Amino acid sequence: MESRIRASFARQSMLATLKATLDEVTEGRCVISAPLLPETRQQHGAGHAGATFTLVDTAAGYAALTLIPPGTEVMTAEMKINLLSPAIGDRLIATGEVVRAGRRLIVVRGEVVAEEAGRTRTIAIVQGTMIPVDPPAGE
Fold it and tell me: Is Protein transport included in the keywords of this UniProt record (predicted)?
């Protein structure tokens, strides 16, 4: 399971752009982190919400992927994000977890914290739905 997730993660160019790392993969849970780079900040200096969403959407998606059969992929059907605080710090840590895994729908939740000098602060929470899909032809 973990090698499958890591191989998929390695193919994600967006995550490479964010310099993200896959920190933890367990059944129904995934943790991804990325430094807050100058290139991923918005005009006020805080991390951009797009980077925050990318990390937590991906963490939640991989959490869902841990619970479905090999040869199947997942895609986000819907995702709601609440941005609670500006993304100020050295890095973002996104955790995704499965709330309920059904045959057709997988409900997920996630949290993003900003870390600065070893202290963390929750900056975003999400809830969403993933759907199992067939992989693209040729994979």
Answer: no
pLDDT string in tens for the chain (139-residue length): 899 999 999 999 999 999 999 999 999 999 999 999 999 999 999 999 999 999 999 999 999 999 999 989 999 999 999 999 999 999 999 999 999 999 899 999 999 999 999 999 999 999 999 999 998 876 6
> Which domains are assigned to the chain?
1-133 (3.10.129.10)
d(CA 80, CA 35): 23
Contacts of 48 (CB under 8 A, 6+ apart): 40, 41, 42, 87
